[in-house]
Amino acid sequence: ETGVTQTPRHLVMGMTNKKSLKCEQHLGHNAMYWYKQSAKKPLELMFVYSLEERVENNSVPSRFSPECPNSSHLFLHLHTLQPEDSALYLCASSQGQLSGGYTFGSGTRLTVV
Amino acid sequence: EDQVTQSPEALRLQEGESSSLNCSYTVSGLRGLFWYRQDPGKGPEFLFTLYSAGEEKEKERLKATLTKKESFLHITAPKPEDSATYLCAVQFYGGSQGNLIFGKGTKLSVKP
User: Fold this and answer.
1) How far apart are CA B16 and CA B13, in angstroms?
2) Are A89 and A34 in contact (CB under 8 A)?
3) Using the beta-carbon criterion (under 8 Å), do A104 and B43 form an inter-chain contact?
4) Which of the residues B36, B50, B100 would you substitute to probe the A interface, choosing the one with the greatest number of A C-beta atoms within 10 Å?
5) Fewer CB within 10 A of the terminal residue: chain A, N end or C end?
């Protein structure tokens, strides 16, 4: 499979649950990103990994915890979320951080109840 | 204050009715401006990169242009399959690790 794959596509979780989002890219890219997309808002950058090292953390609450075990995989671990965290979470990759031509996955639609 | 502003928020066109979408930016030291297309339930799909004023890029019915303060995405004789949300993003020198700043998008609907 090519491109950027995200699982699951949909997730409903309670505020006390712990879950993880997974992202996998088969493009040979060396930078990976997590974005949050909410209605009526621009895409918000959450985390950036370059060469498997975290280089950006945009003041994201600690209830979101990223993990990048290798250059092809990226996880977002979720715990004790709030209803306002409900959104579409998008993973993207690029060849180098300065490349603006990102390849996005289809996202995980998260609902916190 | 938004650094990237897209207008209009929504645009309805008849098939074949050409129009333009606007993306204006306030950042200085532009490194690149990027256009993406996003279909419902999917992630954004990269369309174009523009680096300097006067540059133009074309793909099928779409043409992107860039000035010093804004970019236009011209859609010529659109078809219903062009319906999507079009996102603009900028990257500037000195920006945090070169990260993209996105606008809110323009939702385009093309009716047959």
Assistant:
1) 8
2) yes
3) yes
4) B100
5) N
